[in-house]
Amino acid sequence: MNNSYKDIRKHVDSIRLIDTHEHLPPESERVNKIVDVLSQFYLHYTSSDLISAGMSMEDLIYIKDTKIPLDYRWAVFEPLWEKIKNTGYSRCMEIAARDLYGVDGINSETYKQLSRKMMDRNREGLYKWVLKEKAGIDICILDTLTHDYQVDSDLFVPVLRVSEYTSPMNKKDLELLGKQFGNPIHNLGDYINLVKGRFDALKGKVAAVKIALAYNRSLHFEKRTYSEAEESLNKMYKTKGFHRVPIADTEYSETILDGPGKEELLPLQDYLVHLTIQEASRRGLPIQIHTGLHEGNQNIVSNSNPELLVNLFLEYGDAKFDIFHGSWPYSSRLSALAKNFQNVYIDMCWMHIISPSRARSALDEWLDEVPVNKIMGFGGDYLCVEGSYGHSVMARENVAKVLARKVDDGIYDIDEAKKYATWILRDNPKNLFFPEK
Question: Which of 24, 38, 25, 49 is nearest to 118 (CA)?
């Protein structure tokens, strides 16, 4: 290991991180249940690799069920674990097992010990210990996945999730949405007031707006007129009834409201996304957008190509777009966008564990092509806090390796490399999300 890497890595390890993206549930939810290595470390990401390697969905559900003896579940899990241990996702969890619980690898000799140590630590203060003390994270931007914006402000600042109000499919959804936020929806004017009301209610409480609609549709949000959106909304009110769908082997049935098709509702959703960006820009809130790979299996990756967002970048020059996941596997295309548009920023959340090597090559490329103040170097993006720690270790390693190579190639000197490391891992996200702090 060369001296430049050692020097830069020592500096990188000293940086207090600003974590641009997490999905962690409330600590109380985590510490008030039984946990073990299979129920926590394979909640997501590694679970997608298990499915990709051949595990059935039934077995995936089985291995995470803590009501079943751990030995039984390990027997089902171990053959597939051997097939996915090579991936970045798996490496992340083994780093967490080693550094947080003193266990050398996740295997048949260690899984019981690891699970016992996890339960011993599964108490109040877990998040502070992992995030602040071990990972060196000062604050996390939290994508809560719920409508509860009451979070531990010493650890988290939440985002406003656009999907909470952009995805109704029928009259019942609209009714529930109106009741939830105290703003009944009978026409598009009511809907616009609901959206603006969400921004007003969360003023000073959120750090950004989050758009993750690429899981369900293309990221091209076409410019729509008021009348187009209104007609799309009205189609939900033209429903005449509902039908029941029996659920196999049970006495229950599911009520499905008749309504317009998904394509017929796109004008309304497009309109609401544009409205959201306008409201976020007016309030100085960055817009975080999921691009690139989706979590899970059998997704349509082309729906989240960042090039689909160009119309938004062009129209909303005053908005700040934080483009997630380095757009992997579209990283070079994101580089061109960030180079061309002043309002486009690169966010490496999730990316270091998707592919450590591709994260390094992308960062190396971006440092040659994009102003360094536009790169956000780390977001844990985990449902389990141990994953956030493991990811932070991999992110620090990647940033240090890339910058050390630049020094060895004579492109930067040591002081420049250290400065850029601080910008990428702390100052850039601080300036984007917390400019007044």
Answer: 38
**Shared domain check, 402 and 375:** yes
- Please check whether residues 359 and 227 belong to one and the same domain: yes
- What's the CATH number where 292 sits? 3.20.20.140
- Please check whether residues 158 and 288 belong to one and the same domain: yes
Q: Respond yes or no on whether the N-terminal peptide bond of residue 329 is cis (omega within 30° of 0).
A: yes
Please indicate, yes or no, whether residues 240 and 109 belong to a single structural domain of this protein. no
- Check: CB of residue 376 under 8 Å from CB of residue 286: no
Within a domain: residue 19? Answer: no
What is the rounded radius of gyration, in angstroms, for the C-alpha atoms of the chain? 23
Neighbours of 291 (CB within 10 A): 29
116-166: pLDDT as tens digits: 999 999 999 999 999 999 999 999 999 986 767 678 889 999 999 999 999
Alpha helix positions (H), 167-221 = 171-180, 188-201
Task: Report how far residue 161's alpha carbon sits from residue 209's, in angstroms, rounded to the nearest whole number.
Answer: 6
- Find the domain containing 78 and state its range: 36-121
Q: What CA–CA distances, in Å, run from 235 to 168, 192, 244?
A: 12, 17, 21
Q: Which residues pair with 433 in a beta bridge?
A: none
- 241 lies in a domain? yes
**Is position 30 within any domain?**
no
382 residue type, one letter: Y
pLDDT tens per residue, range 307-362: 999 999 999 999 999 999 999 999 999 999 999 999 999 999 999 999 999 999 99
Q: Are residues 114 and 137 in the same domain?
A: no
Rounded to whole angstroms, the Cα distance separating 335 from 313 reads 14
Half-sphere exposure of 261 (CA within 13 A, CB side): 2
